[in-house]
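REVIEWER CHECKLIST
Item 1: Sequence provided? yes
Item 2: Single chain? yes
Item 3: Sequence as submitted:
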Amino acid sequence: MEPILPMEPKKSEAVPEGNGWLAQIKWDGVRILTYFDGTKVRLYNRKLNERTWNYPELTNLSSYCSAESVILDGEVIAMGEDGKPSFYEVMRRDGIRRKEKLAQMVSIVPVAYMIFDVIYLNREWLNKRPLNERTRLLSDIIEPNEQIQLVSSHRDGNHLFHVIKENGMEGIVLKKEDSPYQIGQKTDHWQKVKNYLDVIAVVGGFTLRGGVVNAVLLGLYNQKGELYYIGHTGTGKLSNQEWRQLTDILKKKEMDDRPFINKPERNDTAHWVRPALTVKIQYAEWRPGHSLRQPSIQSFVDVPPKDCKMPEDGET
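Item 4: Structure as written out by the authors:
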């Protein structure tokens, strides 16, 4: 059973009009597809990187799923201190690479798996069946528990989005109830409406205060493969210890030449680095000239720098 690229929603500025739409909470976590061939359970993210080792809570499939073989689609989330899904917290789990640290972090950062689709069931592909049928089959085979949940669907997308905004959550996904699961595709059958905006950006430089990084300079690659400066930030969810760790990491990547094709406003005080580190950035909007307004760091992410590209049509 080879891993597949998941279906993705297109960005929309508003909840779509008309009938036949189902609205779901857009959970701020890590997209994970679970594969069970009847013998072995494997987990892969949306980039087809294996994550079986990172989330042992999900691998005891028989404790929550009655299928003989299955491919499940969902989002792994972790809660922050405010009781809301936190991308920063889930990345603390997703980025672990040492077994001794994982054993500790399983209890420190518990996760939940929010399942919203089934693509393959008992040796039969379901991707051409409509969403409402797949959802019924999903509810038949999943037994929710504290760490395994089924994502609920709502008819009133505008009301759900209002609730999401009131609670400061990421957004919602609207899905046509008769939509097939289009593997590896991004179509209008699924649309996302976000309460706030985010982008994965490349760190191309930094500034120091008292010997510690106090801001990072961010960029995205244009269509020519050139790194374009989009802004800097020194705010976000990183702890003081993580800023110090970031200082050590970036100092080892320093180089003489500016990696950006355009000149940053902090050009004179900046230290340049080899573009290797990527971060998730939350921001208010794009400003004229292709720069971010009010960017803040949410977390380090494991994304290849060359995948961090300038939006062509406002998509983020």
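Item 5: Key structural point noted by reviewer: Residues 8-194 form a domain with the D-amino Acid Aminotransferase; Chain A, domain 1 fold (CATH 3.30.470.30).
Item 6: Recommendation: ____
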